[in-house]
Amino acid sequence: MEKFEVKRKDVETVSIVYLKGYLDAHTAPDFEKVLQDLVEENRVQIVVNLSELSYISSAGLGVFMGFIEDVRKKGGDIKLAEPTEKVFRVFDLLGFPVLYEVFPSETEAIKKYQGS
Amino acid sequence: MKIQKYHFIGIILPFLFLLLVLAVDVQLFSIENLPVIASRFRELVFLITVAFSIWGISKLHWLKHRSILQKLKFLWAFILLFWGSTKLLEIIADSSDHFFSMVVLFFMIFISVCIFLTLKELIFVQQGKKTERNFGLLLIFIFLQIVYVLLDGREIETIPFYWGMEYAQFGLKEFFYAFVILFAIINGFRCKWIHYLNKKQKVGVFFFGGLTYPIIISIFSNSSKIVENFSTVVGSFIDCVLLFYIIYSGMALLGILFQLPSAGMMDRKMREIQSLQALSATIGSVFDTEELVSKTTELSLEVVGADFSWLELKKNSTYWLASTHGIKSEDVEKIPGDVKKTLRKEISKNDGVLLINNVTRDKRIKKINKWKPKIGSLLAVSIRFKHKELGILYALKRETFGFVEESAGLFQTFADQVGLALENSNLVKVTIEQEVYREELRLAHQAQMRILPREMPEIKNVDTAAFCITANEIGGDFYDVIVVGKDRVDLVVGDVSGKGASAAFYMAELKGVIQALAPHFSSPKRILIEINTFLRKHFEPEMFVTMSYGIFLPAKKNIRIVRAGHPPVGLLRKKKVSWLESPGLGLGLASNDIFTVSLKEKVLTLKKGDALFFYTDGLTEARNKRGEEFGEQRLTEVLSNIGEQSAEEMLQEIRQHMETFTHGVPRHDDVTLVVAKILR
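Above: the input entities. Below: the structure tokens describing the complete assembly.
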């Protein structure tokens, strides 16, 4: 069982979720739980910080897909920040950048919410 | 009953001897002053008779399979018969009917031998090292005694009852007699059969045994005189037997008397051990929880001598009634809820066991008296396995002070066994379920393997090879080589997100969809758009599929490839690898408008010697012991250095590299690879 950690930080209207380690079928439920809570609390301006995420599987990708529609319906979004090279490659191949905004830094991602 | 050898020796032969004696008696009756030798001879015949009887009857094993109580009853019956015979002999002797007397005498020999041998049976219950020796010595001394009497000719006197000094004569026969007494006493210590009686039986044996005492003593002090008139040897033998009986039964009765106070506890201990044995046997063979709990409440009645018992099983934090004995479950349900809660609390406070010997006086559960059945004492233990509580076992008695202190400890041991058994039965259930599950997966795997192409189709001038290895029994990867018409071959590799059963089902479904769509479209982009529509409609939002699709026209050596979120197709040309990375979103991620815009086709014209490689990310993401991934770079290197070989050989070489790299680390994702080599 690979290690995985998820942390949440609320900054005004934006919630930042920090993913660390391996996000796969086993650990995906932990990530799901956090997103679930955010949606229920209507905190839908979400930034996911991927700087410490070393691996993501299709199950992990599926978590994003599972929540994005709801979040966007509520007027929010899930923005991705600071992906590692490897993880970005995975996103890139899949075409995620077409669907999600990816930022090189967390601050830029947060700014995007404040800007709009 | 067939006449066996020993019947002959033990009964018939002695009887014949006696007839012989009788005949001789009759002949010699009239003669006065018989020579001594005649009477000695007569006595000798008697001695031989006795000896043969003992030996023959003992070999008949007629008491072998009788219970102890039966043996005792036989013994007392023989005593009564003996008493009867002596009385009869007295009467007959008066009337001087020699023939009848001899018959009765024979009978008395027979009975006394039976008494002797029955006592032997009792002595030999649970025999020890010295039992045989001690009994043998007793027998020897009895024989020495009667041989002496034979040779000596004098009548013996029943000395033990006349111990006045003027009668004390210490000759050789007294010497032997003393030894008979000594060994009778030594054998008298061997009363192990007493332990096999329960309390009631012990009391019974004490009374009946006691009753035979006066009878025996009366025989002993009076009647043997009469027998001596007929034969000193027989008289002496009978005296020894009776003496033996007196000493042995005296010691046995004393033994019983001293054991009576503790008899109740002995019974209880036996019962406890038997119940624990029964439970151990059950544990070994019963894996059905229902049967196990039923047997447990049944046995608890015996283990602690309870009137009723019930068992609660614990699931998560609730208790439910699993089994009752001696009481109906509806009645147990009627116990007030707060009483039950108090009981459970008290049990856990008291380290898993609770003994209340006076329920009415106990403030904690006094309310239980509102409940219908009368309860005097209560014993409850927690059923545990490795510190986890599996349930609670209750035992109740109507009378107060019904349980002794040791019962609590014993009941806890019992409950521990039950806990072990419950855990075992759970494990067995889980193991069976796992086995069933594993078998189902295996079948699913077989089914899935059948969905993949059994063999690569023959394509003119093209050599193809492929493999698909799933991470678990079933997975989401697939590939297909679809021959469409005469001039077209579609090469497809796909990866359904997720693992296991659901991915496999979707994969199978998708394959069918592709095969249905392919003939209708000549553009791979169009096909994928249709697939995207299908996925958006039928798959869940979290599910998506990555795919590389190539429509190959072998005659023109032309291939049109699209890539939807999938690792790029590799082209090996003159030892150089190029990756065909065309843009394209994964399938099922977005609506068709977005998808269509994202997807771009790539067209290639292939040359002789070119090789195409379709793979899934399981290959590049394969990990080694250090957690490193195989990676695109390494794959590029491997492909660049691959020799001039057939598609199959190239396939195996790549596989070899991957397996060497991962070396024993189990796969975490399916690996698929399709190789197509252009020959001409």
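Note for the figure: Residues 58-73 of chain A form the longest helix (16 residues).
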